[in-house]
Every structure is written in C-alpha cells, then in structure tokens.
C-alpha cells in the first residue's frame, strides 16, 4: 500500500499546484473540446469525495469493533480516496467553469471553496500518513474539512438550482399576491423559478441568457431576444419550448423538469398581451385570460391562509389513479387534505372524467370544468361534491337551467358562469348558496339592468360582470361551438351551437367563407357522408359577426382488423403503437406529446394494414398527420402504398410526393388523401418518409424533419372524400384538434 499512498500523494499535490496555477492565468486558459467533456463529469464525480469524507466521520462509531491498526489503515485508505477524488473534482469543476454561461460571484466562491477543500483534504491525508494513528486532533481537522465541504456543496447547489436552493423550503414567507401585484411577478416568475432560473441566472447563464434580471432577460442571450412582445408565434422562447424533447435546442433540456402545456399556454398569453413586466393585475382587461388566472392565484392564496381542513385525506393511490393526461387532481397546498381538480381539452372529454372524481368527493374543494361540453344532466354529479368551495363552469354547454341543484354544494364560495345563457332566473340559485362570496357572469344573457338588479338583491356577493358596453356600442360575438369534433362513427352528426340568445349561425361546407347574407342558416345537425370541412360564423343584430370557426371531419373508415408496425417509432413518441392508428382517437396540433401521436424521424413510417373484409374495394387511403413546422414536424416527403394477398407478396400500387410547405404555417392536424386504383387486397403496406434535411428557409435547415401520425383511414367509392380523379387533397384541423375558435 505504500506505493499506492505515494502515488496518490504525489498526484494530488501536482493537481493542487495545477489548480493554483490555473487560478492566476484563468483568463488565458482555453479548454479543448475533449477536456470540456471531462469537465462535464464534475457533477457526477463530486459525490465521491462527499461520500468518502462523510464515511470518515462515521468510522469512530465502529472503533470498538476494530483493532487499532485496522482502524488507522481504514482511515488512511478512505482519506486517500477522498483526497484524489476531491482534487479531480476540483479540476473538472475548473474546466466546466470555463464554458460559457458560468460566471458571477457565486461561481468564484464555489471555485475557491473547492480548491480549499482539495488542499485541506490533501493536508489531512499527508498528516495522518505521518502520525500512524487517528488522534483527537485529526478528528477536529476532519470536522473543519467537512465544514468546508458543506460550504462548497451549498454554493454548488446555488449554481445548479439557484441561490438559496437548500434553505428555500425553510423560507415560508412568500409575498402575498394582490390586485396590485404585477402579472409578471404573480404568474410568470413562478414558472421561470421552477423550470428556467436554475440554468439562466447571474452565476450560470446558459447560452448567455440571464432570466433572473428583467433588463438582462429582455436583452436576451447568444441567439437573440427571447420574445417578441405581442407575437408569441415569432418568439424564440415559445419556439424552444415547443421543439421535440430530444432536439438539442429544446428547452428545458431533456432530464430537467419540463413545462406543462398549461404553463406554455400561460407564456403564450403573456407574450400575446405585450409581455409587460410591470402592469399590475388590476389594470388588465376584464376579459383577459391572464387576469382570470391571476384572480385564481389570489383566491387560492387566500384559501390557503384562511381555511384549515380537518377531514381525512384521500389515499395517495386514488389521487395517482385520477391523474391522467386530461385531468389533474392535486392538493390545494402542501400537506393539505383538500384537493383541486381540473379537466382539460373539450375534444377528449368523457363524462367518466367527471364521475370518477366522486372517489374524492369528501376532499374536493375546487373544480375547474370551463370550456368543456358539460351538459345539464351532469349537474347531478356536481351536486354530490358537498365540500366544493370553488366551481368554474365558464363556457360549458349548460343551458343555464337547473342550477338550483348546486344548493347541495353548501360550502360554495366562488361560482363562475361566464359564457352561459343565464338570465334573471339565476336568483333562485343564489338564494340556495348562503356562503357564496363571488359570482362571475361575463358574456351572459343578463343585460345591465338585470345585473344591477342582482347586485342590489345580493349585496354580500361580489358579482363580476365584466365590461358593460354602451347602448350604441357594437361588440363581437364569440365563435360558434362545434360539438362533434372527433372522427364520425356511423351516422353521427355535426352540431353547431351558440350560447348567446338570438345568435344566428351561418355555415358552408364547400370551402367558401360564410357571410351574413348568402351562407345557409344552421337549423339542425349536419350529417356528412364524405369529408366535411365546415366553416361557420355567428351573427346577431347590433353585434359584430364572430370570428370564423373551421372544422374538418373524417368519415368512418372501412374497418381494419389489424395494424402492424414494420419500423419502430421514436421511443419518446410511441403513442398507442400500431393499434392507435385504427382506434379512431385523434391527436391535437399543439400537443404532439399526447398519447395519440406516433412519431418518426430518422427512419420511415412503415406499417401493414389488414381489412376486416378484403372484398370491399379500397380506392382512397387517408393519412391523418400533424403539421407543426416550428417543431420540425412536417408533411411526409413521399408516400408509398403497397398491396397484396399477404405481407410476403406485396406490389407497389401507388407512389405519391405530397406538396411540401414553403413557409411557416399554423399548427394543424391535416388529412392527406392518396388515390389508388380500386383494390381488394387482403394486406396493404403504407410507407411515409420524413424529410432527411429541412429546407433553407427553416430555422433547423439541414436537420431531419419528423412525421407524426395518429390515424390511417381506408375508403371505397361510396364513402371516400370527393377528390378529383388523379389528384390528392389535403384538409386540416386547427390547433384545437378539430375546430378553430
């Protein structure tokens, strides 16, 4: 062992001298790429000296079980390992700190603490080697060494996770969110703190971007300014967030906590409204999504302060079971038994999503159901949540009738009914809610006279009615709601609806734009037997016409018995595998990470399809694919269709090169139709190849594109889309997955 200890001693001494030298010439040190890779091992190696030094601190507890020579040799061996790993860790840390993005006082302090720790550990090793015993004085030296270790570790955690990372849980006092709090501070900063600040702070500015300082954040980093106020589509911040996870430019990097779709949508709204970092919540327009979210934050903060719940919590297993991609169930505060639930995405909503929440009816105090197709019969479920304090039913499909049953929710303090056709009959509901403190009734059938009557009748309730226009002022209607937005099954129909009384819906199915005079008036369900691209607008006298809503519907496919993938999708975007291509479940354009999408990049999509009845002629095959150009998800470069009696005897029956986009376009779910000669094969193979190199106009020029698919449809002459002979058509759904709103 003498040779081992001699080598360790000399090596550590040499490394420590090198560290001192590097400190004096730090600005002149250029680290080659291969050494940069070594430097990036610093976070991995640093756990070794920590472990060895802490092990030394524990060895005295087993002293009585060991002979003195063995006790000494164990100390010397562990300290030798601690000394060499501490020196190597410090050296790797120096190399890592030479990369761009590491600067500031915290980095310098961590650097000095690491070097001091390396020298102290080396000195302790040399001293112990000469003493030939473990003395009390050695134990004091070891304690001082561990103290420096803790200081270095605390400073390192500050660089990696942000300053005060270790002590943050003990700092319980948080600034109260009020109407005077800036929107940026109330809503945006908490997202950045959790997901961004650890890599973009004064000490660790990855890509040259500092987000912890407003001025530096606005200035941007090495690749430019992070956002364009008023235009989230042209903002680098949103672009990086929406890139596929494995893309190098995606932020946050793979392995770091990712932003949720709700958080990304929050940032989109903030940028769209000007990315103002100083405007207080109270100065936002009443109909601003940001104001609604901010008010929810205020109410939640007040609830945490004012309410102490003494009922039993729900089991962790039940809460985990209830959390699915389209529904979240979380405690309203850490350690609280009270739960908050929210259901998302109108197009995927099923009544079971609400009914399943009855498993936590005794703990649920906050329920968010806005913009869902909630109908009157589901009030019977909602009334069973007897501890409910906050209920959001904004822009649902409720008729406004039958709300009196909410009297069973006797604890209700906040009720949101905006966008519903409620009228003065709401008074009966309010009389049954003695604890109600606030009511939101924006954009309802109540006029200013009715609202004033409500305010007079219920002075204890804070009634928020939004902006009330002057008698001669024209406001714009909201778009109609398309109720059938999944692929059509059998004779299912397209329903258009508008909650505003007196609104008339006009629509077209021929691709033309609906106007207020010539377009047909919607009087009942539309039952398409082929592709239907429905465009609709709402009109009413003394109101501006609504924005257009466009919905593309896929008719029922010829039944497919089985689908098999011949190539493997990217492991991060496997969807539901081959069965997901024929299950009728659609994906959404702004969420390519949903379980409905299957993604390919470096190899082609190849799959086999077996019709249930091969005798039915097939003359059109439709691929439902995603267009999300900013995320490198493009139209396939080319498509092949093969057919035959079985997988071993296929022949090429059609090869097709779709028209590729030549500029950035909105995110859409699109239908790509491939005409083939009427065929009765028992087996079909479809090949769709992604672009090997994105075009020069794309930000990722030279990189391969992605192909994302969610469904493949097969049609015969009686059911196919109307496509001129010899041509192919592309239809699309907008970023809701079915209809623009």
Briefly summarize what is shown.
This protein folds into 4 domains: 2-168; 289-464, Leucine-rich repeat, LRR (right-handed beta-alpha superhelix), CATH 3.80.10.10; 470-556, Immunoglobulin-like (Sandwich), CATH 2.60.40; 560-733, Jelly Rolls (Sandwich), CATH 2.60.120. 29% of the residues lie in helices and 16% in strands. The protein has helices spanning 2-24, 33-39, 42-45, 47-58, 68-97, 105-131, 136-161, 183-195, 214-219, 236-242, 261-272, 289-306, 316-322, 351-355, 379-382, 426-431, 448-457; strands at residues 327-331, 339-343, 364-368, 390-392, 414-416, 438-440, 462-464, 481-482, 496-497, 504-508, 532-539, 549-553, 560-565, 598-600, 605-611, 618-627, 638-644, 651-656, 668-679, 683-689, 707-715, 730-733.
Overview of this structure, please?
There is one protein chain. This protein is α+β, with helices and mostly antiparallel strands and 741 residues long. The protein folds into four domains: 167 residues; 176 residues, Ribonuclease Inhibitor (Leucine-rich repeat, LRR (right-handed beta-alpha superhelix), Alpha-Beta Horseshoe), CATH 3.80.10.10; 87 residues, Sandwich (Immunoglobulin-like), CATH 2.60.40; 174 residues, Galactose-binding domain-like (Jelly Rolls), CATH 2.60.120. Helix content is 29%, strand content 16%. Helix 15 links the parallel strand 3 and strand 4. Helix 2 packs across helix 5 and helix 5 runs antiparallel to helix 6. The C terminus is likely disordered.
